[in-house]
Amino acid sequence: MALVNLGCRVNRVELDAIAASLQKAGCELVPEPDAEAVVVNTCAVTGEAEAKARKAVRRAAALPQAPVVVATGCVANLFVDELAELGDRVVVEPIKGLVPARVLGELGWSEGSGTATAGGTPTGRTRPGVKIQDGCDNRCTYCIVWKARGAARSLPRNEALAQVLAEVDAGAHEVVLTGINLGRYSDGGFGLAELLDELLERTDGVRYRLSSIEPPEVTPALLSVMGQSGGMAAPFLHLPVQSGSAGVLKRMGRLYTPAEYLRVVDAAREAVPGIAVACDIIAGFPGETDEEHVESVALCRRAAFANMHVFRYSRRPGTPAAASPDQVDPRVIAARASELRGLARDMRRTYVAARVGQPELVLVEGGGKGVTGGLVECLVPDGIREGSLVSVTPHAALPGSLLDAR
Ligand code: SF4
């Protein structure tokens, strides 16, 4: 089998779970041109992402050995029939948990089908992710993910704990908790802060990282657990901001103002000293004026992000924003995105330089390198085993935002 991942961190985590189940059932991971089955995990976040998904399915379906191509993910949820028409052996399976059984069934491995489902099998990765939440109840006007993924839902407490602890038992020293709207994780009154607290309580020498969390979901309880964890809850928050303009945020359907966003950033810095705050931001949302773009730049400077993912707005058919008549000229979008990327590079350099001389917990990922709690690559002394979590003090920042603790 071969795997093609398109899209976000959640997709990556889900594909890892699919791969682990298939490997457990006896499948071997091989390059696409040799595979009997190709799983394409699609993403529909932008029109561009959707086009990429169709291209990947079409390319796999055209391989000379005619593999079974199983398409899953957001595009598979939204456009079942269209994807199925891309090739004779294309199978669309919107429910990711059922993909392994579907692959095995299509290959005629009947002994495996029905028993292999994704999730709950440790992936054996150095920094595995565990998806504890899916779906979203927000309706951001540029987004189709909430339509594809459905309403917010969470793994039951025991299941979430069991899946994370299985990764720890398999040797992981860092586990990334992921979800489409992770901050909405809840099983009764047991939320993300409680889950993190219990995991920290029950394990030793394991760091936990939150993938991405909507700003309004960052509660004082969560910050307090992070702040008191001694770095075992990674000092890192990825808080999608999308714009620094109150008007644009409102038109996007985002649930906070710039001032509220900055209050979350300040509270995080107070509770977790040295925390790395990262964001997603969209340049050129429909109707974005020069003044509104300047407001975005100002918010980014004020937030002093450690990392920024800058996206050029691209029309996502089926969303309210795509139907808006005041689309921004693509050249203006490109110029705004480039200004934001320049600022992002400067701020990253500043954040990385400030880590020099500070003790860091580094998860060693091989090749003499690892990642800090704030997600900066760091060179470590020779001879440290891959997968270990070690405390080091970087003595220099090298070009390419690389710390040196050798
Ligand atoms: S929070 Fe907004 S952008 Fe994120 S998945 Fe939900 S609707 Fe989409």
From TrEMBL:
Cofactor(s) the protein needs: [4Fe-4S] cluster
InterPro entries xrefs: Elp3/MiaA/NifB-like_rSAM, Methylthiotransferase, Methylthiotransferase_CS, Methylthiotransferase_N, Methylthiotransferase_N_sf, rSAM, rSAM_horseshoe, rSAM_sf
Domain MTTase N-terminal: 1-108
Entry's EC annotation: 2.8.4.-
Keywords noted in UniProt: 4Fe-4S, Iron, Iron-sulfur, Metal-binding, S-adenosyl-L-methionine, Transferase
One Pfam family matching this protein: Radical_SAM
Keyword Manganese: no
Boundaries of every Radical SAM core domain copy: 122-350
Entry protein name: MiaB/RimO family radical SAM methylthiotransferase
Keyword Disulfide bond: no
The protein's enzyme class: transferase
GO molecular function, one term: transferase activity
NCBIfam families: MiaB/RimO family radical SAM methylthiotransferase (TIGR00089)
